[in-house]
Each structure stands twice: as structure tokens, then as C-alpha cells.
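The material for today's practical consists of a large collection of protein records. There is nothing in a record beyond a sequence line and a structure line. As an example, a complete record with its sequence and its C-alpha cells follows:
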Amino acid sequence: MALKSAVQKCTSLFPVVLHAGQVSNQIDLKHYGKFATFISFESNYTSVLKARYHVESIGSVFARLESASVLMHSIKSGALRGKNLITSHFLYTDVDIMFMRDFPVQSLSTPSSVAFSSQILQIPTPENTGVMIINTSWLHQEVSHIMSYGLDTNFKHVAMDQGLLIDYLHNIGIKPEYLDLVYNWKAYWGGNRTTPFIVHWHGPKPLDNCSECIYMNYKSGQISRKLPENPIKTTSVGGSFMIGDFNASQCDHSEICPRIYLEVLRAQDSNIGDWIRRFEEYTSTSNNVCLNESYESLA
């Protein structure tokens, strides 16, 4: 989704797809090569992370912390030879984002370390690393220190590598720069601001659990489209964020419905339906571009 939308909507960027771990047979590298540079690498910290989390693919979750080092190596090795690139900084995104429209590279900040936006609330506080502007040399120099800090703390951080990075920055006295929300606009906020450059499907996705029946109920008018008076009242259950109260009376699986997504669909905003259709288009496997959580996208 990130790659497809970048190719279609944001031609000012040069897309690079990083893959941590072994390349699956599902991935059509020739197809990827038509649109982006595909770089596969083995994480230097997989064994350490497996020992802590006991998850086979955990190295790919933390791969964004190694992104600058991988990118620098690729530049020096000639993998990106002939490309007129700005190498001092790069825009990192998770794969669950959609580029909505083009923007001049000059409009992006050039932080001395990193810059990112808020997470759930629309506040000027750097919290969510799903979209970041990264100072290439800074992260390359710091990644070993970040991981050493993780070992010292037994990786007890909220949101895994995101929390590790934020806590590390706080520990060494560096305040990350704030990235404007238009570059990391959460889908559940709705389109109540000037059209964002990047929409982030943070948390539940349109294909999660019962969202299909919620969408159908929304389209048929069976679900109220009025936002609750205080929608930003959050709790976390089973790793899923929930906003407001939701009784899924129209759903056979009410106990697992992604409640936060209901609020997306209840928003009085015609953009939501369009965003969902784009999500479905970009995540379609009919064109042989397969993405999963082990992939990260760089632009």
C-alpha cells in the first residue's frame, strides 16, 4: 500500500523498500523493481531480540532502527548509483500508510536526529514513529547505542522499538523534532483538516476482524455517523485501541470488533469511504505486490 500510493501520488520521492529477513516466495522482485529499489537484509540484532520476545519475526519489527545503516551501505555499495538523492535525511514510513498527494521534498524538515508526529491525540508531541524524517548519519551512529540501551533495560518499553527509541532519546537528553500531522494523519481522525499528505491506518485496518460488516452497516445508515461528544477517551485491550463506547449489535463477533474503527466510520466525512476504497485497491493481491508486517517502506 505504501509503495503503490507513493508511486501513484508522490512522484517527488524515490521509493526504497527494505525487507528484513529471508525473502518469501510470495514476493515478485521483478515486479517490485519496476517501481522501487528493493533491499533485503539480515538484522544484526535478531538473536538478541528473539531471546527477549520469543517471536520468530521480531527482528523485522525493530528493523526501522537499522534503516539508516542499511541505506548508507546501499549507497556506498552502488545499489542506488545514478540516483540524484538527498542522502543526509530520508522519509521513513510503515507499510500501513497511504500517500494522498505529492509534496515538495523541500517542505520536509531536516532534523539533527529524528522528527515524528503524535500518536492518538492531535497534539504537538512526538510519539508515533510510523512516519519519521531521519537524519541518516545520526541514526547510523546511534543504532548500536540504542540497542545497548535496550539490553540494559531488558527492552521493557511501550510499543517495542517505538518506545525504545523515545525512551533512549529522553535518556540522552535529545528532544525529537515535531513532524506536522499532515505527514502522519491517522485515519480515525477523519478528514477534518486540510487534505493530509499521508494517511496512516494506525491500529485496526479496514480488513481487520469485523470491519467489513461495520462498513456495510455504515453505508446502509444503520450506524450513527455522529461522533461521540468525547471521542478521545481511550483504553487498550488486547493491543487494540478503543475510542468511545461501541455495542456491536449488528455483529456476530462483537467481542473482537476493532472499536476504534467504528469511530472512523461514524465520522461525518465523505473522505472516509474514499480512503477505505483506496486501502482495498492498494492492498489487492491481483497485481502481485504482496506486503506484510515484515516490510518497511522508505522514501
Q: What stands out?
A: Residues 209-260, 286-299 have pLDDT under 50 and may be disordered. The chain is about 30% helix and 15% strand. The longest helix spans residues 136-152.
